[in-house]
Specification:
By secondary structure, this protein is α/β, with parallel strands linked by helices. The chain is built from 15 helices and 8 strands. 48% of the residues lie in helices and 14% in strands. Strands 1-2-4-3-5-6-7-8 form an 8-stranded mixed β-sheet, sandwiched between helices. α6 crosses α15.
Length: 395
Amino acid sequence: MKVKFQDPGFSFQLLRLLGNASSRQADVGEALATANRIVDGDFESWAREWSRTAARLEAAADDCLAKGHKVSASDTYFRATNYYRAADFYLHGHSDDPRILELSGKSARCFDLALRNGEMPYERTLVPYEGTTLPGIFYPAGRERARTLVVHTGFDGTIDGLFPWARAATRRGWHCFTFEGPGQGQVIRRQGLPFRPDWEKVVGPAIDHLVARPEVDADRLALLGISMGGYLAPRAAAFEHRLKACVANGGVMSFMGPRLPKGVPHDKLVEFVKGDPDRFDAMMNARTDKSAEARWGLENGMYTFQAKTPAEFVRKALEYDLTPVASQIRCPTLIVDVESENSFPGEARKLYDALTCPKTWLYFTEEEGAGDHCQTGSPSLGQQRIMDWLDETVR
């Protein structure tokens, strides 16, 4: 779905922001007004204009709060949070750019104030993890012992972007726990921990942390992974058998699968990347010169995987492949796909076909406005169908 911009990445990110209006994390008019000031495909222009809108709203929210208008403050802080996140999005080509910490810090401040002054109960928690901690938020559906949905994001998401899932879950009587793992949000920006392929080592501690809570029913836990989380969550489920259901939105068999040159065997690509990294780097850099979307993918990949070169990033990314472990998943699993999947085309079907556990296929189309990656632009529809499946699967 093209919205405003010709550059597919800019168009998709604007659609993502517009979709957030359903959870009061954006307003259509102010998002489009901001987009009208942005030069198509220009990373600096994108960062400048979203920062400008976010700063205006943050000041307005501060004023609302000072005057005692808590509801107005909360709503406005939510939108400022999202626009600061957007401003940071294309800045990862230089990991030492001070704006990364500045903008993500402002986004985190606004999100904290939005929650504090909002109507949803929540508790910030820290998950013990390999000598440090991971940030999490527990959203209770009430005081009773109940089903719990664990949600994490993927390649570029942050914990505030998971708030709509917490709202969708708690309204249906589920407790919800959202968290950021290595490579994500503040964990990569402030703790410097990159992605890791063995995601069960991340989800396991999160579940250990959760089941110690008296209101969490340890026999009714589900895991939802979004975007690249469609690799991470099934990977965790292959080893973490305390889960009673897993959702991959959308499914990812192999992170590099859609990016491999057609007709080039996996082992030949590995041989090329390892044997002639300088030539490979030159090829990758030439590709990014022609495509803003390719440039962002490479820059964010190198940033979140902590790779110094394109070749190092690809070597690390090749480890993210569920082929050896997909058959080990035991719990009922929902694989989600969309008609115009642009990030991991074809991967959902590969994963679904490889599963031997009870499995369900869920497909979204362009006609219903949900054909883009992760139902971007139509989050309410995605939440409805996915949460209904969870309700029917985890009793």
